Amino acid sequence: MLNRRGFLTAAVGVAAASGLAACAKEDDSSSGSDSGSGGGGKKITLGFAQVGSESGWRTANTKSVKAAAKEAGYTLKFSDAQQKQENQISAIRSYIAQKVNVIAFSPVVVTGWDAVLKEAKTAKIPVILTDRSIETSDDSLYVSFIGSDFTDEGRRAARMLEKVLAKAGHKGAVKIAQLEGTTGAAPAIERAKGFKEVMDAEHKDDWKVVVSQTGDFTRAGGKQVMAAFLQSNPDINVLYAHNDDMALGAIQSIEAAGKKPGKDILIVSVDGVKDGFVAMSEGKINAIVECNPLLGPQLMDLVKKVNDGETVERRIKTEEGDFMQDEAKAALPDRKY
Ligand code: AHR
């Protein structure tokens, strides 16, 4: 593998590695025997640049990646970019300098990756996108993208809202507050797009997004932004949150404002983490669109194939379900994250 790679200057390597140490949290875990490459060959080293630890979804995703790498017997170099693109770029540069076999990452935002991915390509290190996609003019900069269809999740959220409104017997104007994910991130852009698509096509007269702002996919962000929404638009009757954590934060602000989440304000969110299901079983969230974070095992299979030089699928979609409030209690014990 080493002889297939291009040469990086020591200066670039040192700068990249020290940049990473300064900005991101990194940990290395070696595990298993040397059978990680499957054929008794050299153990695979995977560099994984994670977004951060902003949500329950992300925590579950990180656990899944770490456990699956251990199970596969790979050496995993893992970094947490704390939701900053510059940290992820430094991590990827560090993995290039360390000559890992494969790089995988969940891009914080969609744009701005071409330069560093060209460096990986020059070094002949294949790159796999996990969870989130990127915008690039050069499709050869990554080999595969494994993750959810976020636009479809947005459409599914709108469909769930139709059901929630019908179940609540709601009549009249639907005044929607939207808590967006991280600005510029694929799930924020695409979940808004898919939802709007259904709304514009079928509910132009009765549904309106009256206020929409980022809560950065965090509980604290959801709480803070929802409090501001309730001040500026006290007649909001629906919340569409791009993830459960923001919905959970928003619930605190709704209750602090003397309103009942799930009744005065109907709530649809995305992810399906355990805490979201608990809130749903308590009647505080009305419906959840599932987004599966357990990508580790599929990613490790893909890493092996890529490392072995096999042709892999360009796009691998995750399978997911949708849940209404009355399904929450029964589904809760089986939630894996
Ligand atoms: O990219 C997936 C999204 O990122 C999840 O929906 C959200 O919870 C996370 O932070």
UniProtKB/TrEMBL annotation:
The keyword RNA-binding does not apply. Pfam families: Peripla_BP_4 (PF13407). CDD domains: PBP1_galactofuranose_YtfQ-like (cd06309). GO terms for molecular function: carbohydrate binding. Residues 1-24 form the signal peptide. PROSITE patterns: PROKAR_LIPOPROTEIN, TAT. It is found in: Cell envelope. The keyword Secreted does not apply. This is LacI family transcriptional regulator. It comes from Streptomyces fructofermentans.
